[in-house]
Amino acid sequence: MLGTTAMIEPKQVLVDFLASRPRASRLIRSIAQPRSVHVYCIGAPKTGTKSVAAVFGASFRARHEGRYAEFVERLPGRIAGHASDNRDRRWLRDRDATMWLECESAHPLAWFADLLVAEFPNAKFLLTVRDCHSWLNSVIDQHLNVPEPSTNLRDVYYGGEGFEYETDALREMGEYPLAAYLSYWARHNEKVLDAVPEERLLVVPTQRLSHSLNRIAAFAGTDPGKLRIGGDHVHKAPKKHRVLERVPRALFLARVEQHCRSVIDRLSSRPELSDYDLVGAPQAV
Predict the structure, then answer these.
(1) I need a surface site. Which of 73, 81, 174, 253 has the fewest CB within 10 A?
(2) In this predicted structure, what is the pLDDT of residue 1?
């Protein structure tokens, strides 16, 4: 018993030391546990970020939405534009030293993309993108299937623009206006495109994730065999409500043109998306 206690205590002392001194933690881990890859997946909600974590998790230290409550605390100020860059950079450094991941996949990180680019110059970024129609159906399904999550960024993402309802379908279900959702799709993707240099960004359509492993591996700088084939679709909705069937197609297309067209054009100019329909069609859901 004494021998076991003697072995455990030094280990706990080391853990406590590293947790209290992020700089020392990063230095020690960079020597003792160097990263084989360093990837951030920062696609919007319901675009496959959990699937990307599973793909990398087969061979690398990967996590999906770690320490999520901290995002809930910090994102309102970040999105509103009055957060401190210096404070957030310290926070990003400290959480990196504690988690020490090789792949971190989390949609809130998109709003810190400019800081991540500067703070981690060797990191690569994956932007998972889904067409507007199937993305919106999936987001609304998630809201209806889990109406009261324990941690919630929904109002932060979709509730701050003051849009009016265009149709009773969403109002009756207690969801946000059509424009609120689609404007967020555009703002999220635009944030990443603006922040991440071309050579450090790979855009992957959600529906093509399982067929993109070779491209992802080459981009990350690893062997494709280390990525788990078939790691997509790990977060399917338990029930599909098909709410957009109650929204006139012409109204949906008008809102896409109004809020998403400029970002769709930017994404469509990339070779990864040259043949991908970013508007989406009802039959593709």
Answers:
(1) 81
(2) 45
